[in-house]
Each structure stands twice: as C-alpha cells, then as structure tokens.
Amino acid sequence: MADGDLAPGFKSSIAVPVPNVRGAVVASLNTGMAATHRVVQEMVETYLSALLKVQAGIERVLT
C-alpha cells in the first residue's frame, strides 16, 4: 500500500505479490487511483479482495 505523491495526479496504489511454487516472488499485481479518487481504507476494502482472488488463480497455474 502506498499513499502519497507517486506521480502527478496519482496518489494511492495497492499491490500483492505473486509467488512461484517455491515461494519466491516472481511478479506482482497492483492497481492505483487518481488523487481525486477514494480514501485509502475504501480502496483496500474495494480492491484488495479482487487482487487476492487473481493472485490465487495465478498461483494455481504456476504450481
């Protein structure tokens, strides 16, 4: 989770790691919001579960 000035007009980002079968992180999934968009907690509540579902699907493919 990052909440700050990442780039002009871009404020918050949330990411999850994607590990391989040995547990090494081989990729990540993330989403970001414009600075005028949602508050941090609302972003976590809205997008974290979706990112984790995609992460789980990718992990199944990697095993």
Strand content: 35-45%
Q: Strand count, sense and closure of the main sheet?
A: 3 strands, antiparallel
Number of helices: 1
Radius of gyration: 13 Å
Q: Can you list the strand order of the major beta sheet? A: 1-2-3
SSE class: alpha+beta
Overall 3D geometry? elongated
Task: Report how far the terminal alpha carbons are from each other.
Answer: 27 Å
How many independent structural domains? 1
- The succession of helices and strands, N to C, reads EEEH
Mean pLDDT: 81
Low-confidence stretches: none
Give me the count of strands.
Answer: 3
Roughly what percent helix?
25-40%
Characteristic key phrases:
3 strands; elongated; 63 residues; 37% helix; three-stranded antiparallel sheet; alpha+beta
Describe the protein in words.
The longest helix is centred in the last third of the chain and has 23 residues, at 40-62. The chain is α+β, with helices and mostly antiparallel strands. It contains 1 helix and 3 strands; from the N terminus they run E-E-E-H. It has one domain.
List the helices and strands and how they pair.
Blueprint: E1 2-7, E2 10-19, E3 25-34, H1 40-62
Antiparallel strand pairs: 1-2, 2-3
Structure summary:
This protein has one helix and three strands.
